[in-house]
Amino acid sequence: MARVEPRDDADLDAARGSDFGAWQRELRVPQIRHVAFLTAGLYLLYALLEWRLAEAGTLSQWQMLRGLSIAAILISIGLLSFQPRYHAPMRALLLIAPVLAISGNLLLSLGDQDFVSYAPELYLALIWTFSVSGLTLGPATVSALISTSLILAFTALYGNDQTLPDLHLLWVGSAFAFGLLGAAQLERSSREMFLAQAQLQRQATFDDLTGLWNRRQLRDELAREIARSERNAAPLALIMLDIDHFKRVNDEHGHAAGDVLLRELAELLQHQVRGVDAVGRFGGEEFLIVLPDTRVDAARTVAEKLRATIESNAFSVGGTCTASFGVAEYRPSESLDAFIQRADAALYGAKRAGRNRVWVSGD
């Protein structure tokens, strides 16, 4: 089967869903990098502040080490972001980094008289996980749920103030709720942007009526194949075909019927050529097939097979249909337009010779 876009809506939705996840993850890599380095800088500053207080007690020494450890993890995340093959472990580290930061905070400060000075980090970490880190909604929710569970468990076990836990839990719940809301809105906006870009890309690449490549994409593909042919001295052939008496179909059955015929012919063509071949609608009722690594004699055979298949096929509009074919083989150093023009001239040679036949450039 030729290289074409799947036309089934379910297939398209499934492809878009899987593609969105990959697109979103890669789109957020620069954000992850910048946020990781910036947050590492803040934790280094935090460690410096704790170092200044370290002489006052052991707690500040441990807090300083915690700040340095989290900074080291974040710097590692930022460095891993530069290499695509390390993006999976990068995201795994990013998921556990806030969990580790919150765990250390709780272990060292919960129940201490200075907890009110360290508690804001817990709330900020939850919002950071959802809205700043660069994690997508699913992993961010997992990370934040683990962190929130730890906060609730430690507070229940070690909280020793009757007023602070109530306010503390209010801020924890608020941070989680606002973070989740922001992440969900961002995910929705990202999906809308992705779908809009996918639609624009499809419109720029595929013919809306038939689902085949459009004229622009065919020319781009032909240019690539010409370059490959020149580079490898490989043969390359073109088949151009045109539905015979297509105007009569429109006049007798209406333009909607003509559209049905074009779609049915497109479906037939894409199932009759090789997977390496490119087939598309070149304009109106004209179709173009690019055949890599194919000599003119083989291309003629393909065209003749297609002609016979079309002639014998029972179309839903008008029953039968025929087409005329022009075949050309690429000549070294020939321009793209000249190559297409020779196939087009051969096609109209077939038309002049009586239609429903194959004509080879140079015949």
From TrEMBL:
* Gene3D superfamilies in the cross-refs: 3.30.70.270
Molecular function, one GO term: diguanylate cyclase activity
The reaction(s) annotated as catalysed by this protein in its Swiss-Prot or TrEMBL entry are:
2 GTP = 3',3'-c-di-GMP + 2 diphosphate
Q: At the top level of its lineage, which domain of life is listed? A: Bacteria
Q: Which InterPro entries match?
A: Diguanylate_Cyclase, GGDEF_dom, Nucleotide_cyclase, Rev_trsase/Diguanyl_cyclase
Per the record, the GO terms for biological process are: cell adhesion involved in single-species biofilm formation; negative regulation of bacterial-type flagellum-dependent cell motility
Q: Name one GO cellular component term.
A: plasma membrane
Cofactors: Mg(2+)
One Pfam family, short name please?
A: GGDEF
> Which EC class does it fall in?
transferase
CDD domains in the cross-refs:
GGDEF (cd01949)
Cite the EC number.
2.7.7.65
PANTHER family registered for this protein in UniProt: DIGUANYLATE CYCLASE DGCM-RELATED, REGULATORY COMPONENTS OF SENSORY TRANSDUCTION SYSTEM
| Protein name as catalogued | diguanylate cyclase
The source organism is Wenzhouxiangella marina
